[in-house]
Amino acid sequence: MQYLIGIDIGTSATKTVLFDEDCRVIASASEEYPLYQPQNGWAEQHPEDWKHAVLATLTTVLKKSRVQGSDVKGIGLSGQMHGLVMLDENNEVIRPAIIWCDQRTGKECDEIYERVGRERLIQITANPALTGFTASKILWVRNNEPENYARCKHILLPKDYIRFVLTGVFATDVSDASGMQLLDVPKRQWSEEILQKLDIDPALLAKVYESPEITGEVLPEVAAQTGLAAGTPVVGGAADNAAAAVGTGIVTDGRAFTTIGTSGVVYAHTSKVSIDPKGRVHTFCCAVPGCWLVLGCTLAAGLSLSWFRDNFCQNEVGTAKGMGVGAYYLMDQEAKNVPIGANRLLYLPYLMGERSPLLDPDARGAFIGLSGIHTKRDMLRAVMEGVTYSLRDCYEVLKEMGVHIDEMMACGGGGTSPLWRQMLADVYNCQVNTVQSEGPALGVAILAGVGAGMFPSVPEACARFLGKDKTCEPIAENVPQYEHFYKIYNKLYGDLKDSFHLLAE
């Protein structure tokens, strides 16, 4: 029997999954790590935490399964996008990684526009200058920590730091590189023009590969530590959303998914480059060679619910532990008993600023309509609905761009909630399906299988191994109710925008 491993280096945890040659789960392990916010709007993590989690979970899955390392034919890496990892001449980490949801780089985004021009930037990178992207983080370190920038010899994304740990190779893939704002997305290569105008040395950047291409092999010292075989190939892999697309079968035109993880994403596959000239949603290279993706990203989707849980639902956490269920299960049951519209209470999920389609790092979360009649349950329901409305905002932009969507899948932690899936179906007014999938980990395992020659292509592998699991149809009487509240929600940002900016000042 041959095996594949998919590793997903997420924001809250790393998950490593061992699959057999039919992409069935044999063993899995995960390990959590913290996120640090040294100042309001900042977000950092320690790459050493990712390293420890990956090596530990690799060791665990091989021990649990008793699979011989020599039978593992390929490894795929997925990870959170946009994070900045800087290494010195000794390949040591210089400073904590500035990750995707960090919002400190507003001035640097202005600098990028001054150096490149907004229209030209979107033409080349398919995206506007954004605080969460890597290029502005690089400039921030150069402007604010010149001593660290002077020491920097290598710039890597989170999953590509793990690739270096495993293989000693500096490499990235086209999907993850697309989120750095340094790649010519239509041409699928580093942009000489952008690098020159931003005065960034190309030698700092890793070599770019297509996602199923082999980039390196497992080092002997890593093999000795984990149980893998030295020389096991590691493929390019993919950014988390591109990997999730493969893991849910979104690899052909007309297919899309919504994921509710820490952030929320509406993602559609396309075989042609489609760029929003207003820059409200992102166009990246996808994990299928020669194809692209269009996605809208709301920054605090599952993050909004976990924030609410941590601050207001400790009773539910304790009760759930005693019952042997998750806290989110009990929270679902409570929210289900509140009517649509949460008794006229709305929530704006802008805890970390907002990306699609607002592009406003100063936007902040808010409950609107709060009164003496409202309870914690109402607020909980409002949080779930507000996140759903923010995803609808992204969905509307994709439709406006002419991106055709025949089928919508749901994935991520929020996709496991029957209540949240029904909200999506009702708010989108379309069928929402799920697949039995390990998401990004399965996606990059499939990519590893293609790279190792086990599968002929990404679309063929997905067609062979992935099928629908659950189907959720919109409830006819719910659709107009949600539509009414969505229209009010859609108006609120414009009403509050100036106040958000005054608060930021």
Automatic annotation (TrEMBL):
Root EC class: transferase
Catalytic reactions on record: D-xylulose + ATP = D-xylulose 5-phosphate + ADP + H(+)
EC number of this enzyme: 2.7.1.17
UniProt-annotated binding residues for substrate: 81-82
Positions of the Carbohydrate kinase FGGY N-terminal domain: 3-247
CDD domains membership: ASKHA_NBD_FGGY_EcXK-like
Active site: 240 (proton acceptor)
Domain spans labelled Carbohydrate kinase FGGY C-terminal: 258-451
InterPro entries noted in UniProt: ATPase_NBD, Carb_kinase_FGGY, Carb_kinase_FGGY_CS, FGGY_C, FGGY_Carb_Kinase, FGGY_N, Xylulokinase
GO molecular function terms attached to this record: ATP binding; D-xylulokinase activity
GO biological process terms, semicolon-separated: D-xylose metabolic process; xylulose catabolic process
Transmembrane segments: none
Keywords per UniProt: ATP-binding, Carbohydrate metabolism, Kinase, Nucleotide-binding, Transferase, Xylose metabolism
Residue(s) at site: Important for activity: 8
PROSITE patterns documented for this protein: FGGY_KINASES_1, FGGY_KINASES_2
Family per similarity comment: Belongs to the FGGY kinase family.
Role description: Catalyzes the phosphorylation of D-xylulose to D-xylulose 5-phosphate.
Entry protein name: Xylulose kinase
Source organism (scientific name): Caproicibacterium amylolyticum
Lineage: Bacteria, Bacillati, Bacillota, Clostridia, Eubacteriales
Annotated gene: xylB
